[in-house]
Amino acid sequence: MLCSLVFFVLANLLGSCLCLSPNFVACQVQKPKGMSPLVGCPPETIFVSQDVNDKHARFHSVQDAVLSLPELSSATILIAEGEYNETINVTRKGPLTMLGQLPTSALDSINRPFANRSDVPLKQNLVKIWNNQFVHTGMDDATSAVLLVAPSFNASLIGAGPTGAPLQPLFGNTDFKAYNIDFENRAANFSISQALVTDISYANASFYGCSFASFQDTWYTGRNGSTYVVDSIIYGQTDYLFGFGTAWFQNVVLANRACGGGIVAWKGTNLTDAPGNRYGAYIADSSIIRSPDANATTVTAGKCFLGRPWNDLATTVYLRTFMDSTVQPVGWTPFDSARPVIMNTTFYAEYDSTGPGGNTSMRIPLEHILTKEQAKDFTIDKVFLEPPKWIDQTYLF
Ligand SMILES: *[C@@H]1O[C@H](CO)[C@@H](O)[C@H](O)[C@H]1NC(C)=O
Ligand SMILES: *[C@@H]1O[C@H](CO)[C@@H](O)[C@H](O)[C@H]1NC(C)=O
Ligand SMILES: *[C@@H]1O[C@H](CO)[C@@H](O)[C@H](O)[C@H]1NC(C)=O
Ligand SMILES: *[C@@H]1O[C@H](CO)[C@@H](O)[C@H](O)[C@H]1NC(C)=O
Ligand SMILES: *[C@@H]1O[C@H](CO)[C@@H](O)[C@H](O)[C@H]1NC(C)=O
Ligand SMILES: *[C@@H]1O[C@H](CO)[C@@H](O)[C@H](O)[C@H]1NC(C)=O
Ligand SMILES: *[C@@H]1O[C@H](CO)[C@@H](O)[C@H](O)[C@H]1NC(C)=O
Ligand SMILES: *[C@@H]1O[C@H](CO)[C@@H](O)[C@H](O)[C@H]1NC(C)=O
Ligand SMILES: *[C@@H]1O[C@H](CO)[C@@H](O)[C@H](O)[C@H]1NC(C)=O
Ligand SMILES: *[C@@H]1O[C@H](CO)[C@@H](O)[C@H](O)[C@H]1NC(C)=O
Ligand SMILES: *[C@@H]1O[C@H](CO)[C@@H](O)[C@H](O)[C@H]1NC(C)=O
């Protein structure tokens, strides 16, 4: 009783935080000894802990908890502090929220944005989910991802070329959310080959206070996928934001561990299966920096391109983004020697870039340096063709 009271006060204090979900913070904070970790959680929240003696834990692996869920209905999974060596594969349609535990011991440090480019080292979460898969010849990129949100195996496939793997008449999760979880592909500490962290295809998903770490192809928003990432950190080297759907990155830190390809490699479509789509990568109010964990011998100054076109209909837009000196002054590069020209069907744009890499005077002529008026066409509601119902607008950052 006394404990609950103390906790209630604590939760109220946390409710005024800068950078947390007011809906979930009470559930997420680690509880004093003797109190259920589920105090403050939505009804029927499933608790996952690696501690086999924890009587509150229904599962000891996150994927086991996912597999226990019915196809429909909403579900919440609370994950205890720990490093989970597993691949998460969400095929179900029903809304699913994954919560990482937050520390009580460091109220001060969580009362700040998770993604702050000035933190050295950058912040980390208590919960880490990781695998060490990477792509060998003949494998599809999808099979290396740490987190898959896609309705079927074929729908998760990425394929190659301008349209990739065949279009699937399916849609998977309508509302996947993750809070305060670090997703890491630990295949190597260098770019070994494609080693994905996410593959979100034919699904709608959003992420809050998370991080995603790899070298090549860290983040993937697949076909007919819509994703939103806020107050999060993404680490990579080559094409580490890639996709064939619509992705909005808000207040993220893009941490260059080295430079290769482009930061973004996107595809668009003019096929009638996606009428009026605005497939593209949109990065707003964010920072591009040399990753504090980059190998000291790795040269990045002036070497990282903002993007390269995976197909000629690629769209990539940076809004109000700080760019450090890792950014290549010309900004953008052709895909490869087989496609040595960036076609004018590709849409590359920036608005109000700042920092030493944000000087746009040397950018390629094809790029659009947007006016304030033109930039108004790039908002969350406009690129998703509606105000997305699957984004948590209450998250504070
Ligand atoms: C992680 O999981 C992989 C695949 O199951 C396994 O091969 C590897 O040994 C595990 N590593 C650790 C450190 O647990
Ligand atoms: C970002 O981090 C720096 C250095 O750790 C700190 O001084 C600053 O207050 C932080 N910004 C915010 C908004 O918390
Ligand atoms: C994900 O789970 C589905 C359903 O069990 C399975 O068909 C698919 O192969 C899995 N995906 C991967 C990449 O393992
Ligand atoms: C997955 O794709 C393969 C190759 O295109 C095809 O042979 C197979 O029937 C598909 N499976 C399903 C369940 O659609
Ligand atoms: C990567 O570096 C970390 C920290 O130095 C080390 O613990 C880990 O074993 C390395 N991973 C690989 C795959 O070499
Ligand atoms: C669709 O895009 C492709 C690749 O840029 C182009 O060759 C084709 O003409 C376009 N089709 C239409 C109908 O605009
Ligand atoms: C994309 O998903 C929507 C549901 O969000 C569906 O209505 C539409 O048919 C899908 N389009 C394609 C090309 O799969
Ligand atoms: C840094 O890179 C050098 C040169 O490629 C390599 O020899 C060294 O092992 C790397 N260090 C770490 C910590 O990965
Ligand atoms: C793109 O280039 C083609 C051929 O070079 C030209 O006809 C067309 O007007 C250009 N389109 C735009 C939008 O600049
Ligand atoms: C931007 O770069 C150009 C060309 O190098 C230089 O002349 C100009 O002074 C720079 N602008 C700023 C604000 O640094
Ligand atoms: C997925 O999100 C898009 C964009 O907000 C929306 O148009 C679509 O209806 C959503 N799909 C489903 C199945 O909820």
From TrEMBL:
**Which interval of the chain is the signal sequence?**
1-19
Q: Which SUPFAM superfamilies match?
A: Pectin lyase-like
Keywords from UniProt, A to Z, are:
Aspartyl esterase, Hydrolase, Lyase, Signal
GO biological process terms, semicolon-separated = cell wall modification; pectin catabolic process
Tell me the GO molecular function terms: lyase activity; pectinesterase activity
Q: Does the keyword Lyase apply?
A: yes
- Key word Signal present in the record? yes
Q: Which InterPro entries match?
A: Pectin_lyas_fold (IPR012334), Pectin_lyase_fold/virulence (IPR011050), Pectinesterase_cat (IPR000070)
Q: Where is the Pectinesterase catalytic domain?
A: 175-382
Q: Might you give the EC number(s) for this enzyme?
A: 3.1.1.11
Q: Which pathway does this chain act in?
A: Glycan metabolism; pectin degradation; 2-dehydro-3-deoxy-D-gluconate from pectin: step 1/5
**Similarity comment: family membership:** Belongs to the pectinesterase family.
The protein in question is named pectinesterase
Task: Supply the source organism for this entry.
Answer: Pholiota conissans
